[in-house]
Amino acid sequence: MQPPLVRYELTDGIASITMDDGARNTLSPQMIGSLNAALDQAQADRAVVLLTGRDGLFSDGFDSAILREGGPRSVALVRSGFKLAARLLAFPRPVVVKCTGHAAEMGALLVLSGDFRVGAAGYQISADGLQMWLTATEIIRRSVVFLDLVVPEARLAHAARDMAIAAIGMDMHKLRARQGILAAIRNAIDVDFTEGQPVASGCG
């Protein structure tokens, strides 16, 4: 039996959601489905979310094998990734992202979709391959930096936990404050996925 792609642990009001596929934390349909299931549980628990990856890597983005196929399955994959990012932005409790290493393409957009973002020095975060998508542009535009706090790798776990603990008492009114950006992102998803819209094979 294979270990789960996503681990969920609730401690003191913080839902730790950890992506770990044993390799590149590729955002496959299974990984995205597991993340959504974990967010369902965090919402039921009324918990602050602490989203993280495996040591040295947050996520390398979409499953490239599916993207190279083209067709409905690749379209569905990209759309589900964008909808996951929108869900994080609209999540009713604070979302802290602990960027444990490199984050590429859709992985970088997930980092940007957190309310508070902390990462270790020395890693690269890049969404360069996604600029052709209006949805990606809208998500990137909402933030001038990828990370709010950069710390030495040895301090990352403590810094992220401290950030999550501080977020427990915050009443963010996220939905009210983000009505404009969420409307823009949801509209962008509709525009990106109108009938006949191709999926670029380089989208990671």
UniProtKB/TrEMBL annotation:
Enzyme class: lyase
Alphabetized InterPro entries for the sequence: ClpP/crotonase-like_dom_sf (IPR029045), Enoyl-CoA_hydra/iso (IPR001753)
Domain of life: Bacteria
Protein's UniProt keywords contain Lyase: yes
Signal peptide: none
Keywords: Lyase
Record's keyword annotation contains Acyltransferase: no
GO MF annotation list: enoyl-CoA hydratase activity
EC number(s) stated in the UniProt entry for this protein: 4.2.1.17
Protein's name according to its UniProt entry: Enoyl-CoA hydratase
Organism encoding this protein: Kibdelosporangium banguiense
